[in-house]
Amino acid sequence: MPNPTPTPKLIRAHVFISGRVQGVGYRYATVETASQLGLTGWVRNLPDNRVEAVFEGAQPIVDEMVRWCHAGPPAAMVKSVVVEYEVWEGLRGFEVRRCE
Fold first, then answer.
1. What is the sign of the dihedral through the CA atoms of 82, 10, 89 and 55?
2. Which of 46, 65, 89, 98 is the most exposed place for a label (fewest CB within 10 A)?
């Protein structure tokens, strides 16, 4: 009997991106890219000019999205990306959130 294909590990990455990442379409490009990859989560601007995002999904796909964050859309100039791995919550959809 063949072994079933292992289910990929589901993870949650909480990401903080700094540099020229506001006013360049970073949030909307993040929504588009994450949605195309089938990830769930959210993205928002922070008052200190960083962008904050949460990505949930299979580990290889989340890792791909985190790599994308290091470049972002063409007009962005990313200086740093800080990633914190958290407990997966099972979010649905991907949205832009308002800054709190």
1. positive
2. 98
Locate 100 and state its tokens: 């709190």
Q: Which sequence positions are flagged as catalytic? A: 27, 45
Q: Report pLDDT for 7.
A: 72
Type of residue found at 44: R
Residues 6+ apart with CB under 8 A from 84: 13, 14, 15
DSSP structure class, residue 73: S
DSSP letter (8 states) at residue 81: E
Contact 8, 64 (CB under 8 A): no
CA-based nearest residue to 72, from 23, 14, 38, 10: 23
Q: Is the pLDDT of residue 56 over 80?
A: yes
Q: Are 56 and 89 within 8 A, CB to CB?
A: yes
Structure tokens at 41: 């989560």
Q: Which two tokens stand for residue 9?
A: 């590990």
- pLDDT above 60: residue 1: no
